[in-house]
Amino acid sequence: MTPCVLVTGAHGCIGAWVVRELVERGERVVLLDQGGDPQRLLLLLDADRVAALDRVEADVADLDAVEALLDSRSVSHVIHLAALQVPFCRADPVLGARVNVVGTVNVFEAARRRAGRIEMIVYASSIAAYDAVEAGGGAEMSGTPGTIYGVYKRANEGTAQVYHQDHGVASVGLRPHTVFGPGRDQGLTSSPTTAMLAAAAGRSYRIGYGGVSQFQYAPDVARAFVQAAFCGHRGATVHNLAGEAVAMEAVVEAIEAAAPQSRGMIDHARVELPFPGRVDATSLGEVVGAVAETPFAEAVSDAVTRFRGLIADGRIPAERVEQLLA
Predict the structure, then answer these.
(1) Which of 53, 196, 227, 230 has the most CB atoms around its CB within 10 Å?
(2) Distance in Å from the first CA to the final CA of the chain
(3) Confidence (pLDDT) at 152
(4) Is residue 99 within 8 Å of residue 27, measured between CB atoms?
(5) Contacts 24+ apart (CB under 8 A), 293-296
(6) How many Å apart are CA 90 and CA 4, to the nearest integer?
(7) Alpha-carbon gap, residue 102 to 197, rounded angstroms
(8) What is the secondary structure of 223-234 as a DSSP string?
(9) Which neighbouring-strand residues pair with 123?
(10) Is 281 helix (H, G, I), strand (E, B) or coil?
(11) C-alpha–C-alpha distance, residues 119 and 228, integer Å
(12) Strand, helix or coil at 205?
């Protein structure tokens, strides 16, 4: 049977890049998202290719809808990315739990009921699943995450473990840290990407936090998710994504190098996030193999260049730039 990959949350940043990666690989793919606007997909694929995609509007928290989609498309692999980001979970924790926790349980339960056909679930956890830390603290799992979003992500990791223990459902969880690149316009760590957009547009911008973060370019992240989906692993494991640990001062320098006209126009706040600044990603390669990673400065330059092109051809119109920079 020809593999078919279901991507939940396909209209999000990572989702859009994952869809692009799958399309470029020639894989059969079906998209699930509750939102009907494919704006991020249109940043990465031309309108005709987006129109040709098999897109289904459904709620991942609706088990019947998830099961119907798995059956109607004969899905064999799931890349589960549907989730509400930190600010939205903070604003509406009940809705956040419904999407982030119940939605994930639904994916695993639907796969359990189709054990003979669903080969792999790859799902997005997060660096936020680690314990809250003070500046410079390490990555621990013995306490409590610093956000309700992180609590939900840790619950999802536990769900995956139990579904493997009790039912043999295979999964790989990946913990992104600071994903950046076109399409990253929401979430607690999205402001470095907004700064890159600002530089491309010749505008000033202040990144909302500082400290050290592990930066991961969105196309590299997508490649890791797709590689994990086809790695053949039969257990239930969770891995940090690789990436360069970069101080925010160096992020600003890289943006200025990519857009010299922005020098002096980009700065950052000094507050640090309650997440580990860097984590070890060695175990990921041991399970899925080496994942190609774009050097940070090169990735920033590519992102700024992409933003210039997207602004020039109208795919990011002036009013959208204003909205994102507000």
Answers:
(1) 196
(2) 49
(3) 98
(4) no
(5) 293/217, 293/220, 293/242, 293/243, 294/217, 294/219, 294/220, 295/244, 296/215, 296/217, 296/243, 296/244, 296/246, 296/254
(6) 34
(7) 34
(8) HHHHHHHTS---
(9) 80, 173
(10) coil
(11) 12
(12) strand
Looking up tokens 């990572």 gives 14
Residue 137 has pLDDT above 60, yes or no: no
Per-residue burial over 286-304, b if 16 or more Cβ lie within 10 Å, else e, is: eebeebebbebbebbbbbb
**Residue count (the chain):** 326
Q: Could you tell me the two tokens for 197?
A: 């957009």
Tokens (6 digits) for 277: 């600044």
Which tokens in the block code for residue 73?
Answer: 């498309």
Strands 212-217 and 244-247: antiparallel
Q: 320: number of CA atoms within 13 Å, CB side?
A: 15
pLDDT of residue 37: 86
Q: Name the token pair of 316.
A: 């990011």
CB-CB contact of 268 with 210 (8 Å): yes
Give the model confidence (pLDDT) of 147-174 as tens digits. 999 999 999 999 999 999 999 999 999 9
Strand (E) or helix (H) holding 249 = helix 248-258
The label of the residue with tokens 């639904």 reads 106
Closest CA to 228 of 115, 77, 60, 30: 77
Q: Where are the beta strands (DSSP E) in 58-177?
A: 77-80, 120-124, 171-175
Residue 143: band (very low, low, confident or very high) from pLDDT cuts 50, 70, 90: confident
Beta bridge pairs of residue 245: 214
Give the mean model confidence (pLDDT) for residues 56-69. 97
Please tell me the pTM assigned to this model: 0.96
CA trace torsion 94, 180, 226, 7 (10° rounding): 40
Rounded to an integer, what distance in angstroms lies between the CA atom of residue 282 and that of residue 284? 6
d(CA 19, CA 17) in angstroms, rounded, equals 5
Closest CA to 9 of 119, 113, 122, 170: 122
| Mean pLDDT for the chain overall | 95
Position 2 scores a pLDDT of: 85
| pLDDT score at 142 | 81
Q: pLDDT tens-digit profile of 96-106?
A: 999 999 999 99
